[in-house]
From TrEMBL:
Keywords: ATP-binding, Nucleotide-binding, Nucleotidyltransferase, Transferase. Residues 311-401 form the Rhodanese domain. GO terms for cellular component: cytosol. Residues 264-286 are annotated as: Disordered. Signal peptide: none annotated. One of its GO terms (molecular function) is sulfotransferase activity. CDD domains: RHOD (cd00158), ThiF_MoeB_HesA_family (cd00757). This is Adenylyltransferase/sulfurtransferase. It comes from the Bacteria. Residues 274-286 have a biased composition (Low complexity). It comes from Glaciibacter psychrotolerans.
Amino acid sequence: MPLPPLVPPAAPLTADQARRYSRQLLLPQIGELGQRRLLAARVCVIGAGGLGAPALLYLAAAGVGTLGIVDDDVVETSNLQRQVIHGESDVGRPKVASAAASIGRLAASVRVISHPERLTSENAHTILGGYDLVLDGSDNFATRYLVADTCAELGLPLVWASILRFDAQVSVFWSTPPAESGIAGVQLRDLFAMQPTDAGAESCETAGVLGALCGQVGSIMAGEAIKLITGAGTPLLGRVLVLDALTARWTEVPLRPSQVDAARRHPITPARPPASAASCSAPSAPTPTAKLSVELSVELLERRLAAREHGSDDFLLIDVREPDEHARGTIDGSVLLPLADILTESGRSVLLRHRPVIVYCLHEGRARQAARALMVDGFDSVCVLEGGYANWSEHRPPTAPGVAE
């Protein structure tokens, strides 16, 4: 369902603005009024990296009037493979300065506010409170949850994405969407209730990432921001878009609100009220509390595998990693069903809903996503292996891949 425009319109367009944005003005869902809303909008982008780079460029090109950039890092040579807002001459330069210069060359009329600092609990409300909308392109769990929780408290919509290797996810979170939309508020903690630890987590630095995928996802983030600002189309609020670039397959997972961390559902008034006064209304009552997956220790899994071998336990152990990871070693007695398959209805259809399921990946991130999809689909018992295969392999030697049951 469409949402009302987030931002009131700026003054009528000048002749130069009408010429510059003429191709966008032709779109009836945006038009002259939508373009004026974009010119009045204030958008903050967390991170001028793989996701923030394309998002910033397309938001600037679209005519967003004010862009904030939060990043305390400098440009490195390894960034250039995907962070297209920077060039070779920018290596060693602060990312906020490099990004601001690129935006200036592309759209000199855009006001850029640089925040060359790390977002912390001390400055998050002050920084984010000055914007209408936030895009999160950060690269660590601590910042992601800080951004999400702060936006929930401020009542700000958040365009969120995550990317690694050839896989990506995109969604929109908003604790208090306008009541007339009939859409319940959802937050990051409705998708992943607890903040994982960054220790041992996979990252682009350790696992790699396809640069072109960053462009795809960053552009989608910019598109979602433009839709929210102008009221065009239906945003990804209450839906998680999942992309497997290797198979060029898009899937969608529904997201419903839970009552995890209910205190987060009492946001304070935004620094600048949205276009509709109803945006400040309390959200509709959440649906019943979502089931949460249970973590299973390596020791308990060993005991359950032994019991299954003797016929006193019955469960399906699923490796949700990619085939190349599975081929390098797996847990004896597990079957391979990559995350991208579990996120599709056809992929889940091969599983029996009444049979208990234990899922694992290298650490826990993908396994938690799989567990969430299974529980939303009605599976009764789902566990996640604590620490994943990395934790298992510290206790047990790897085995050759097994045959699917």
